[in-house]
Design brief:
Elements lengths: L1 H5 L11 E5 L12 H11 L57 H11 L11 H6 L5 H15 L3 H33 L5 E6 L2 E6 L8 E5 L7 E7 L6 H9 L14 H17 L2 H12 L1 H8 L4 E4 L1 H4 L5 E3 L4 E2 L4 E13 L5 H8 L7 H31 L12 H12 L4 H18 L2 E3 L3 H8 L2 E5 L10 E2 L3 E2 L5 H10 L10 H8 L5 H7 L4 E6 L7 E8 L2 E8 L1 H7 L4 H16 L3 E9 L5 E9 L6 H10 L4 E4 L4 H10 L6 E3 H6 L4 H10 L2 E3 L3 H13 L4 E5 L5 H6 L2 E4 L5 H6 L2 E3 L5 H41 L6 H15 L18 H25 L11 E2 L1 H20 L8 H20 L17 E2 L7 H27 L1 H4 L11 H11 L1 E7 L6 E7 L9
Parallel strand pairs: 1-14, 11-19, 11-22, 19-21, 20-21, 22-23, 23-24, 25-26
Antiparallel strand pairs: 2-3, 2-4, 4-9, 5-8, 5-9, 6-7, 6-9, 10-24, 12-18, 13-18, 14-15, 15-16, 16-17, 17-18, 27-28
Catalytic activity: ATP + H2O + H(+)(in) = ADP + phosphate + 2 H(+)(out)
Subcellular location: Cell membrane; Membrane
Family: Belongs to the cation transport ATPase (P-type) (TC 3.A.3) family. Type IIIA subfamily.
Length: 1028
């Protein structure tokens, strides 16, 4: 066989001609070359460091610093995009495929339709700013401002409004800054496409497409917009057929040709091609007559142009053939073929876009929003409780609802409303998330949903892909196994024939197969003999093989490459050869090699088993260490791979993952049910030979056991499981559909990025948790002290000073978002019961400390006041210092605080000290009768420096004491686990019941006697055991 093929062919043989319905050819640099000459050139010039074709550097425009209200990804679109089909000029969709649209027409069309992207409606910056004044906590503060206005407390009103404006501005600006960082990096994952404009083929961002653009869709591409197929890329002359069928409205249906089946039609088409190539005038005339006939047009209409993967939309597992005039949908993937298409709707008006609009209003706020709402609601209830207690005490003391000065019940209510509601809580937590998202973006992790940071911090199981994540995704060809009597060069040539030849988007396996021909020069010579591809069928999960029908001279060859068992089933070889073949496949698998069988069929001869290719994808250098780090973080890694079981086990051994790896089909359909099935999923180290539905099932079972699960994926078919996971992660190089479904998109390869993201998310979570604990304690501190002060001694701190205490607390803690935080060694969660217990204890201790300093002022010597001072100002300074320093307690002592946090708190403390020294806003109203003592209570509010130093020392001592108590509380085991959920809960009864229900099916049959329908509840038939 090989010697006959190696004889030189006639020079006039057309190399690389495409005679069939679908060719895998596609080449940017060599569009004028035939399929196989272009492939040979690719083998010759390929270099590992060659940049990807079609990538263009584009300068990212930055928003000027003075336009602080502008988000970087905001684009000025003068008009709102029009609904689909409304007011679209008919000539817009009649673009010529050779000329395309003019660049001068793009802007006009974009004004009508907007950018071609699935984006939420651009929010008006002013409306966005106003959103920071909405929410239950903020409404109470706004009500307090109105109350101050009604009481003519202009200073209080101004400061409260200042607090609200400060929180809104800081939140808006910092979130905008973080969004700009994320937006600037999102350009790195933006979809690109090839279009025809101004008569030139150009590569542009998919978002820049407009209606009427001519796009070139080829194997490996993601469809950039809903588009109508026009004609095959290699047959531009069929554009006339398309126009006529469009004019006659015959594009919408397939037509059955009389007396001709599909194969005969193809043969006739090939004969026409051969006549056309003959270059005689009469033959050309006949071909032109046929081209204008209805028969010819219908024949072209019935020939598929491309095949697309619509699984994410329709659930179909196999690629769907698309014909002239068919619509291909946005975000679907082209599996084979190359064709021209015209854009008929932008992303927002596409099939996918309209579906997305149905749920656009239902924004998933996640668990984080629920936690914040529960804390806010609880604090509001506490405020109402303390106000009620204060009013009841006031009635017994005959204090009026209104009255001069601040000693009235409305002022008491105003004070408690100000100090009892943490106005900065929503802003600080959101800002912390936004700043964290910006940091993650710089680490090549794009956070698409802020609440995903909280989810990632609590993840306790990571389901990871193998290829490209655990391994380097750099396949290398090892020494192949060649069947007895066969030639290795012929086998390598057949393997290359049974590969995609679209060199712009080669599958990694096809790429390494083709490039391996550098080591087999005789195999390359075989490919140079004048082959032509008649039909190419890419890999599908049912047949588990790739097939290519190729022609050489008068002979037709069917070349196949695929899973060893699938290829073996094609052939009828001797048992001895089959046994050796299976043994070698097992040996390759045990060594961690991926093996592919190769077979060929010539004309009507039987299939010939040529041998096995062996490939190796080595683990990344850092993967083993990364997996160890993940385990130390309490996040075991489960490997989900489509490779064979033996390969998966060998990879797990290399990575120290454990060898409890199971075949996913055996798991799902192997007779395991209920709690036994869940136990196996929980204990397994990985699963082999998985399909997308298996990934979904594994994630679902883990979640049913109470685990927070992260899932990595890269393909269109991974989208369902990425959505299902608590934190879906699209790895580097993931498809647009996977990126859209994921919560986080990684731009860097490998698993180390995931571990870094987990650590960072836990640091962010720690910042939020420490701030929440701190803020609850502050609210309880003043509520307890002031309410008891109002009831017992009929005294309160002036409202003017109270609002500044609230202002200082917010000013100081905005810097929490930039604090140095540690990451917890185990998955984190809110543990709200523990937060409340600890916060109540801290709040009570702070209240006791304030009562102690107030009590000393009743001593004959004035207590803490040495020479002269003011009760109001001393209390103000002590409260401000202890509350500001409390954040150093709740943040923990494992890391040093950041300079931003230290600087903010020090600045606020200095201002509070100046208030005390010079008696700012102290007044006289609200102060109790001067106790009989030797110190001079100055009614101008001034306080001597010695007293101020003593207050600082006392506050420092209080903070140290509270820090010791806080440390002891965190050492109490029952308190440390209070509110922590069981991450491995099981309900065997419910799991077993559900498993038994899944075995049942409703069977329908027709009663032969009565003729009526009968429905019977029966057990599903068990699937046959798969061949070993």
């Amino acid at each position: 066989m090989f010697s006959r093929l190696h004889r030189r062919q006639p020079k006039d043989a057309e190399a690389g001609g495409n005679l069939g319905e679908s060719s895998s050819s596609g080449n940017r640099e060599g569009d004028n070359l035939g399929e196989y000459p272009a492939l040979d050139r690719y083998i010759s010039v390929y270099r590992d460091d060659t940049p990807l074709s079609g990538e263009e550097t584009h300068e990212k425009r930055k928003t000027p610093w003075w336009k602080f209200w502008k988000f970087q990804d905001d684009e000025a679109v003068p008009h709102k995009p029009i609904p689909p089909g409304a007011g679209i000029p008919e000539d817009w969709l009649s673009t010529d495929i050779s000329a395309g649209i003019r660049s001068s027409d793009v802007e006009e069309r974009r004004k009508r339709t907007g950018y071609n992207e699935l984006m939420a409606e651009k929010e008006n910056p002013f409306v966005k700013f106003l959103s920071y004044f909405r929410g239950p906590i903020l409404y109470v503060m706004e009500l307090a401002a109105l109350l101050a206005l009604g009481l003519s407390d202009w200073i209080d009103f101004g400061v409260i409004m200042g607090i609200l404006m400060l929180n809104a501005f800081v939140g808006f600006y910092q979130e905008k800054q973080a969004a700009d960082v994320v937006a600037s990096l999102k350009g790195d994952i933006a979809m690109r496409c090839n279009v025809v404009r101004d008569g030139q083929k150009v590569n542009i961002l998919a978002r820049e497409l407009v209606l009427g653009d001519i796009v070139i869709i080829q194997e490996g591409d993601t469809v950039p917009a809903d588009a109508r197929l026009i004609c095959d890329y290699d047959r531009p002359e069929d554009f006339d057929v398309y126009k006529r069928l469009l004019a006659e409205d015959k594009l919408g249906e397939l037509v059955e040709l009389e007396n001709e089946d599909e194969d005969e039609g193809e043969d006739e088409g090939e004969e026409n091609n051969e006549k056309a190539n003959g270059a005689d005038a009469d033959g050309a005339g006949v071909a032109n007559l046929r081209r204008g006939s209805v028969y010819f047009m219908m024949q072209q209409r019935n020939r598929p142009l491309i095949a697309v993967d619509q699984s994410a939309i329709t659930g179909e597992s196999l690629a769907v053939d698309k014909y002239m005039g068919d619509t291909v949908y946005y975000t679907t993937g082209c599996k084979r073929g190359k064709a021209y298409a015209v854009v008929i709707s932008s992303a927002r008006q596409s099939f996918v876009g309209r579906t997305a609009n149905l749920v656009e209003g239902a924004k998933d706020q996640g668990h984080f929003k629920a936690v914040m709402d529960s804390i806010g609601t609880a604090l509001l209830i506490l405020v109402m409780f303390w106000i009620l207690i204060a009013w009841i005490g006031g009635f017994f003391r005959h204090i009026g609802v209104t009255g001069p000065g601040s000693r009235n019940l409305l002022h008491y209510a105003l004070v408690l409303a100000i100090i009892g509601v943490p106005v900065g809580l929503p802003v600080v937590t959101t800002t912390t998330l936004a700043v964290g998202a910006a940091y993650l973006a710089k680490q090549k992790a794009i956070v698409q949903k802020l609440t995903a940071i909280e989810s990632l911090a609590g993840v306790d199981i990571l389901c990871s892909d193998k290829t490209g994540t655990l391994t380097a995704n750099k396949l290398s060809m090892r020494e192949p196994f060649v069947s007895e009597g066969q030639d290795v060069n012929w086998m390598m040539a057949v393997a290359a024939l049974a590969s995609s030849h679209n060199i712009q988007s080669l599958d990694p396996i096809d790429k390494v197969t083709i490039l391996a021909l550098k080591r087999y020069p005789l195999a390359r010579e075989i490919l140079q003999r004048g082959w032509s591809t008649v039909k190419f069928t890419p890999f599908d999960p049912v047949s588990k093989r790739i097939t290519a029908v190729c022609r050489l001279g008068d002979d037709t060859y069917v070349c196949a490459k695929g899973a060893p068992r699938a290829i073996l089933r094609l052939t009828d070889c001797e048992e001895s050869l089959a046994s050796v073949y299976r043994d070698r496949a097992q040996e390759f698998a045990r060594r961690g090699f991926r093996s592919l069988g190769v077979a060929v069929k010539k004309n009507d001869e039987p299939w010939v088993l040529l041998g096995l290719l062996s490939m190796f994808d080595p683990p990344r250098e850092d993967t083993a260490q990364t997996i160890i780090e993940a385990s130390q973080l309490g996040v075991p890694v489960k490997m989900l791979t489509g490779d064979a079981l033996a390969i998966a086990k060998e990879t797990c051994k290399m990575l120290a993952l454990g060898t409890k790896v199971y075949n996913s089909e055996k798991l799902i359909h192997g007779g395991l049910t209920g709690s036994v099935q869940h136990d196996l999923v929980e204990r397994a180290d990985g699963f082999a030979e998985v399909f997308p539905e298996h990934k979904y099932t594994v994630v679902e079972m883990l979640q049913q056991r109470g685990h927070l699960t992260a899932m990595t994926g890269d393909g269109v078919n991974d989208a369902p499981s990425l959505k299902k996971a608590d934190c879906g992660i699209a790895v580097q190089g993931a498809s647009e559909a996977a990126q859209a479904a994921a919560d986080i998109v990684f731009l860097a390869p490998g698993l180390s990025t995931i571990v870094l993201a987990i650590k960072t998310s836990r640091q962010i979570f720690h910042r939020m948790k420490s701030y929440v604990q701190y803020r609850i304690a502050l609210c309880l501190h003043l509520e307890i002290y002031l309410t008891l002060s109002m009831i017992i001694i009929n005294e309160t701190i002036r409202t003017d000073l109270i609002v500044f205490i609230a202002l200082f607390a917010d000013l100081a803690t905005v810097a929490v978002a930039y604090d140095n935080a540690y990451w917890d060694p185990r998955p984190v969660e809110w543990q709200l019961p523990k937060i409340w217990v600890v916060s109540v204890i801290l709040g009570v201790l702070l209240a006791i400390a304030t009562w102690i300093i107030r009590g000393t002022m009743f001593l004959p010597n004035g207590g803490i006041i040495r020479n002269f001072g003011s009760v109001q100002e001393v209390l103000f300074l002590q409260i401000a210092l202890t509350e500001n320093w409390l954040i150093f307690v709740t943040r923990g002592g494992r890391t040093w605080p950041s300079w931003q946090l230290v600087g903010a708190i020090l600045g606020v403390d200095i201002i509070a000290t100046l208030f005390c020294l010079f008696g700012w806003l102290s007044g006289t109203a609200g102060a109790a009768e001067t106790p009989t003592s030797t110190f001079k209570n100055r009614f101008d509010g001034w306080t001597d420096i010695v007293t101020v130093v003593l207050v600082w020392l006392y506050s420092f001592g209080v903070t140290v004491f509270i820090a010791i108590i806080y440390l002891i509380l965190n050492k109490v085991s029952w308190l440390n686990d209070l509110g922590r959920k069981d991450r491995s809960k099981k309900d065997t009864i419910v799991e077993d019941i559900l498993a038994q229900l899944q075995k049942l099916a409703i069977e329908h049959e027709l009663d032969a006697k009565t003729g009526r329908n009968r429905y019977i509840l029966t057990e599903k038939a068990s699937e046959e055991e798969e061949e070993l």
